[in-house]
């Protein structure tokens, strides 16, 4: 499963044409990704046929959310569900760096049939392996998006391999800094079955079908 990041309708349709299996729809990539607008979500969903998972992150200040932030997230999830997306990508931590289990429970109650990916908030947690164990206790959480607690998934590949080995019921989705040239190394080291990429498949700012094809061939081995 190859997930490609998209921030515009044009990027989404280009990724689908190139062979992406799934999209993560975001805005404000310069801030690490934020919740896209209602209009963008609606336009992308009407323009592609592959599954679209929508990032739900109201700001880039931290992954510790105030009550007002939490209400914003819940409202966004309700809208995303009503629009017919396939999933959400969301995460929240407590002030001491643990998974915010109470708020995660609220998210689960509102998500309906949406697939749930706990995003790279886990990389900012106090103990990434402990956080994954907590998430594994929630059957409604389908996957975690992670760089293994490092700047890139390649640097964190040892931790990612541990996460995959210790949490067989969770899909571990490596993301951040993945390149076509080193993806094979990452896949062999981690035994990951999915990849999350953005710039890895771009040439001059455009999705390159050959790069997408190369990554999909690696995943199929």
Automatic annotation (TrEMBL):
Cell location: Cytoplasm
Secretion signal span: none
UniProt-listed Gene3D superfamilies: Copper homeostasis (CutC) domain
Keywords: Cytoplasm
Main location: cytoplasm
InterPro entries associated with the record: CutC-like, CutC-like_dom_sf
Record carries keyword Cytoplasm: yes
Pfam families reported in the protein's UniProt record: CutC
Record bears the keyword Protein biosynthesis: no
Coiled-coil residues: none
Family in the record: Belongs to the CutC family.
Descriptive protein name: PF03932 family protein CutC
Organism of this sequence: Exiguobacterium antarcticum
